[in-house]
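Pectate lyase superfamily protein
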Amino acid sequence: MENTLHSATPEDYGALGDGVTDDTAAIQGAVDAVSPGGTVNFRGSATYNIAAAVILKSGVAIEGNGATVTKTASATGAVTFANEMYSKGYGGGGRDITIRNLRTVGDYAVTGAGRDQVMSFMHVRGLRIENCVFEQGMVNGHYLDLLGCDDVRITNSTFRGMNPLPGREIIEAIQTDSATYSGAGHGYFGLDFFDGLPTRNVRVTGCTFTTLEVGGIEYPLPNPLGMHSGALVGDDGWYQDIWFENNLVRGWTKDVAGNPWQGWLHMAGFRNVVIRGNTFAYAGPTQAVGRGSVIASRPLTEVIPLGQAAAASPVKEILTKPRAAMNWKISDNIFTGFNANYSDGSSSLIYMNAPGNDRISITGNVSESVKCGFCRVDNDQNLVISANTVEGSGTNHTIDVRSASAVIQGNSIRAASSFGIHLYGGQHHLVEGNRIQGGYTSIRAIGVGNGILANNYLRDYSGAGIDLGANSDPATTFDVTVSGNRIASSKAGVVASIKIGTKSTRTFRFGNRYWDGGPILDSGNGTRATSALDTN
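Predicted structure tokens:
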């Protein structure tokens, strides 16, 4: 006879919800009893203590009503909720599973499995996490571990605190993982179901990630989202369709100097990513020198092949072509508070570094009173950096582009301290309509070809407004048009309004207006204009 029970409570199956009694079996009994489309209703005032993971099935919702879930002292694993497995592939772990209005709490005072609170899901299609609170977890694991899931929505939830073991400082609150045994790290999913598929189609909206104070100690915020490894050799191995929108990330992270994976959001081998409308606010102690970025993308160079997906210690395969970032949109975010406590000045808030980056768009962001660079993008083609407002910078360049081609347009940079815009290599760059105040050099180009620097307003630099092809540059700058720029500086000791060195060939210079900003110094080869075409 088909089960048609649409609602149940843990109390129906013997739960006490007193924070002491082990309620695992009672909660599992309620989950098993309801039919697909049904709901397990927790008692809002209850604290349910569990010793092992509750296994959720397809089509069932957990309505927390504000209840709390903790671990018993005898808990043997880090996982609080997992899912049944039916088959490999997306949806093979069930469909339409929902958890809402539930608080899960770990315990930093214990050394056993109860210190972590992990929800781990594999091959679930249609996972919904709504209005939940995760706190006092992330010692060795994550708050949400998504292995080969699809169509995931995480909304209006709060993630507080992490206390990572040494070497685990980069773990994420939400890990978009692949379906591998080494990624799961536990035995709730049978070995036959690991197929290496990556998590895809994830939306994180309206959430808060912040620090947590316990016993007078402030613990750092959890790294909100990301992944730093992958599986499957072919196109099926890409993480894709990730949205991180309208979230608040506030506090500080626990960094280890020199770890390349540091970054509040860090990813490798991701395409179709939207990071939009978020507020990233630094509030915390002085950080390590050269710390990581807020948004970071690295190349994915090796993966777990299908034949190793179920291995505990998989033998990885080196990709002949590393996976880079493709089709990213970073827009309308606010970065605030990233002052001297955050960085020694050598970092960039956004760092995209992978051979083959393609179609990266960084637009409409606001960076307030920072002491670091705004963005550095390496090895990209079809890059757009536009309409950003940046106040301040450190020893790093405000906008640092080391890419094949870029449009850098309509940005406003105030109080720069190094180079406002730094171009290194590549061709067909368009740098147009930017307003840059301060810095040693407003626009610096090294080894650039066929570029256009036009209609920029450059002022109050201490070295040069535009510097092309300096004598000591490692590569020649050629066929660059410099036109229509307005250049002025009242700083003492300025070198030049426009400086064209011997490593610049065939510069086309005309129609620039400069005053009180030093002379035009042109020792380039074959400059195709005369100073008469520029006005002082």
